[in-house]
Task: inverse folding
């Protein structure tokens, strides 16, 4: 059977001659594929850096702040203090009580450059608090819920704050950025598919006479389709190679350098990320290219 | 070889291109399909290569009912039927050799076979010395010979020629038909649609005359017959 006998040399000759004739559109399609896949890569890379940073930070912070209402009596305070120190996961040597006036002093020290912040207020708005350290940072959640739910006079406790709550907030903000990034990538991928599809439509149109002759001399449908399909796939692949270069160079030249100089930020990379991301982008490029050209072939090549 | 049974083709707008046509063309025959323009000659050709579907009736080619032919098999039908058209349908940026080789490439023939057969066929049509010329460097008659070479290179059992002399200088038209006769004498069934009275009257082959889509006359060793 001749359907299976695909002349690879013929297909690539036809593909490249078509790409040459169609150069401007092909370049535009490649560029858009590159941009959308590049953004995909950078979003994934950025997300990885950020989530590693959060993990590293979480592991090192075991601090809980317990804020008290002003109406708390001395007797109640002592009871709460005793309860906290009695929690087995808490390091009793690192439980510090900070009164309202101590809190104000600390605040003044932290903001010496703008004294107007406290000069004009008559009463002290800052609450008294306990600073509690857990023995193991991973127990922060457990300890804070024990304080919230089991402490005596817990109606006197205004709030229990942990560093991970701040981090969680940050994470949720970042999650939103990630969704925006994904939506952006999806939209751009659809646009790049359409653009590949348009270049293939133009290529089909430019060769409609030849296609007619091919049908006349008995060319099979796939014989006619292959060069157009490879054209689309090559455009997708070319775009993905550019995207891969951008992602790898960004990692090596920018983020690796940044991680070194700003080591206190604890920038980290998942080691397998690049080996997974590179083939993923290449596959995405091929998929975009082939879907784009198949759409064009379905619509504009009745064979 | 070719059998039509009550074939009718109606185009949009209730235009009858062919109406109730029944005829047989035997293996190795040479038949002229004659009639004024619009009489249904081109539709006849299009139906045989399944470029159009009949509205009703059956068409058999080599005992195969082509109405029932699956879509993916159409290319294989077309490899059995060489086609030649008035406008040659050559690819302008390919040389004479490449244009003819194209028909073999499409069917997946090897380079070796192509390099051997293409010059042979071009020699047969009298263009053995113009392998590297481009179509626009050739006369109309020569271009039509290239087109015939391309149609014949797969050695099809049937060759359809739709007004092959239409764009060819009258002095060269005779040579084109002689070439078709030569191909016919090698066993290929040839059907030539034409409205060239002089040619039909010169060659005295079977004449199938169409008018308004109907066969009005079918005779062996016939003449053109229209005024």
Result:
């Amino acid at each position: 059977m001749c359907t299976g006998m695909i002349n690879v040399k013929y297909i690539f000759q036809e593909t490249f001659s078509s790409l040459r004739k169609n150069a401007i559109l092909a370049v535009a399609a490649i560029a858009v594929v590159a941009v959308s896949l590049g953004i995909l890569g950078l979003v994934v890379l950025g997300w990885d850096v950020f989530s590693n940073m959060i993990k590293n930070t979480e592991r090192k912070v075991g601090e809980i702040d317990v804020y008290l209402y002003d109406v708390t009596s001395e007797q109640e305070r002592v009871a709460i203090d005793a309860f906290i120190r009695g929690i087995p996961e808490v390091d009793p040597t690192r439980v510090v009580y900070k009164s309202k006036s101590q809190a104000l002093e600390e605040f003044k020290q932290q903001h010496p450059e703008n004294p107007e912040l406290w000069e004009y207020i008559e009463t002290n708005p800052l609450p008294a608090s306990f600073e509690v350290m857990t023995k193991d940072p991973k127990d922060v959640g457990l300890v804070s819920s024990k304080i919230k739910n089991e402490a005596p006079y817990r109606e006197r406790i205004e709030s229990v704050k942990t560093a991970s709550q701040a981090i969680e907030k940050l994470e949720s903000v970042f999650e939103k950025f990630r969704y925006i990034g994904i939506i952006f990538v999806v939209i751009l991928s659809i646009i790049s598919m359409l653009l590949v599809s348009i270049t293939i439509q133009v290529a089909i149109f430019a060769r409609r006479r030849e296609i007619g002759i091919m049908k006349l001399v008995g060319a099979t449908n796939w014989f006619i389709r292959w060069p157009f399909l490879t054209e689309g796939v090559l455009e997708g692949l070319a775009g993905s190679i550019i995207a891969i270069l951008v992602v790898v160079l960004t990692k090596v030249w920018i983020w690796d350098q940044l991680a070194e100089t700003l080591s206190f930020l604890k920038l980290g990379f998942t080691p397998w990320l690049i080996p997974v991301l590179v083939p993923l982008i290449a596959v995405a490029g091929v998929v975009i290219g082939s879907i784009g050209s198949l759409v064009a072939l379905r619509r504009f090549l009745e064979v | 070889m070719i059998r039509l049974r009550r074939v009718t083709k109606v185009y949009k707008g209730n235009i009858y291109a062919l109406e109730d046509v029944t005829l047989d063309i035997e293996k190795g025959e040479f038949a002229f399909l004659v009639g004024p323009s619009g009489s249904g000659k081109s539709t006849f050709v299009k139906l045989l290569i399944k470029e159009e579907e009949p509205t009703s009736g059956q068409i058999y080619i080599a005992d195969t009912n082509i109405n029932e032919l699956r879509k993916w098999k159409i290319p294989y039908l077309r490899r059995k039927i060489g086609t030649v058209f008035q406008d040659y349908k050559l690819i302008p940026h390919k040389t004479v050799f490449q244009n003819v080789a194209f028909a073999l490439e499409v069917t997946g023939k090897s380079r070796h076979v192509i390099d051997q057969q293409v010059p042979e066929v071009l020699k047969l049509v009298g263009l053995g010395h113009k392998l590297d010329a481009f179509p626009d460097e050739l006369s109309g008659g020569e271009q039509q010979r290239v087109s015939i070479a391309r149609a014949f290179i797969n050695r099809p059992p049937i060759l359809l020629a739709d007004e092959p002399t239409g764009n060819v200088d009258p002095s060269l038209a005779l040579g084109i038909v002689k070439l078709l006769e030569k191909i016919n004498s090698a066993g290929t069934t040839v059907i030539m649609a034409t409205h060239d009275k002089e040619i039909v009257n010169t060659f005295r082959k079977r004449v199938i005359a169409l008018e308004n889509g109907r066969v009005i006359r079918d005779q062996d060793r016939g003449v053109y017959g229209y005024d």
Observations:
- The interface with chain A takes residues 49, 72, 75-79, 83, 89-91, 102-103, 105-108, 150-151, 154 of chain B (CB under 8 Å).
- The two ends of chain B are 31 Å apart (CA to CA).
